[in-house]
């Protein structure tokens, strides 16, 4: 197993409060390229969140980790018995147990908002509120 030096993206963001817009764009581009590679290989990750992205604090090199919930596909969406992912990063269709590359892209959008604006737009005041926001796709852009 490969050793990955660094910290998860959430910890990295807490450490690097003064990241430039260019650095943030670089990080987002790298996450998106990793997702592109996954999707071109027919893999839907199903749990895209900052804790599943490792960042080398010196080089900003990133790795997408934890493919334990991933799904190998043939083009198009898949319907699964269990909903997978982390509330607050899950696309609304995941609550109906439908997954596609678009579900991962939705999760990427939440991470992009976190990186650029400093908050998760689905985060509610409680776990239940976050679940309801995620399920409805209610984005809070404040």
From TrEMBL:
InterPro entries: Kinase-like_dom_sf (IPR011009), Prot_kinase_dom (IPR000719), Ser/Thr_kinase_AS (IPR008271). SUPFAM superfamilies: Protein kinase-like (PK-like) (SSF56112). Residues 1-142 form the Protein kinase domain. It holds the Pfam family Pkinase. Transmembrane segments: none annotated. One of its GO terms (molecular function) is protein kinase activity. This is Predicted protein. It comes from Hordeum vulgare subsp. vulgare (Domesticated barley). The lineage of its organism: Eukaryota, Viridiplantae, Streptophyta, Embryophyta, Tracheophyta.
